[in-house]
Amino acid sequence: MDSGISFQKPFKNRSKTENQPEHPLKIVKDDELNSYALIHYLEQRKIPVEIATQYCREVHYELNTKSYYGIGFKNDSGGFEIRNPYFKASSSPKDITTVKNASDEVKVFEGFMDFLSFKCISRNELNKTPDFVILNSLSLFEKARPFLESHKSINLYLDNDASGQKVVREALSNSKKYNDHSKLYQNHKDLNDWLVHIGKQQKKRLGNKL
After folding, report:
1. Which of 23, 102, 115, 170 could form a disulfide with 109 if both were Cys (CB 3.0 to 4.6 A apart)?
2. What is the C-alpha to C-alpha distance for residues 2 and 25, in angstroms, rounded to an integer?
3. Angle 64-11-76 (CA atoms, 0-180°, nearest 5)?
């Protein structure tokens, strides 16, 4: 199944992943997640395959006339965020991803691995299902604001880096609807990094803090 197609190795000195390569990435097909290599990658990131398959696809794509594949997460405009152990990319068009459950609460994530991590952590703990927004890029936060601010409560789970925390500070200053939850995974880059390093032992400690 995987013969003749490879993961993409990272380019040296590549700038931000949002930047388009010289030769645009072309999606050839998307299918159900069934590659052993991709499932193993998800397991390394502590994401159960049964959760990933609800939201992700196995995406085969071409770049510079070569064929590759990865885990694809679709945005609201039909583009994909693509991940494999070696490559992090996007296909056009770039957009946010919304998961709507007719809730007055929305939870916000920078990337889909953090969203999947939250679904893993909270699957037995939430009494009701909120709406979700996956930004897919911090630069899309402003675009997401009208949808976010149509909710009564906006809970942020952004990265614990300078860029993520800058957006958090700006959001908190804009409206009292925003709440910062990044302290739940303090000392870790993001929610998935926390999940990978802490694992199941401490998931119960979150309780209703989610």
Report:
1. 115
2. 19
3. 70
Distance CA 174, CA 170 (A): 6
Q: Single out the residue of 188, 187, 156 nearest to residue 174, CA to CA.
A: 156
User: How many CB atoms are located within 10 Å of the residue 111 CB?
Assistant: 22
Q: What angle do the packed helices 162-174 and 141-148 form, to 10 degrees? A: 40
Task: Please tell me the distance from the alpha carbon of residue 44 to that of residue 91, in angstroms, as a whole number.
Answer: 24
Question: 165-202: b or e for each residue (b if 16 or more CB lie within 10 Å)?
Answer: eebbeebeeeeebbbebbeebeebebbbbbbbeeeeee
- Mind listing the pLDDT tens digit for each residue in 156-196? 999 999 999 999 999 999 999 999 999 999 989 999 999 99
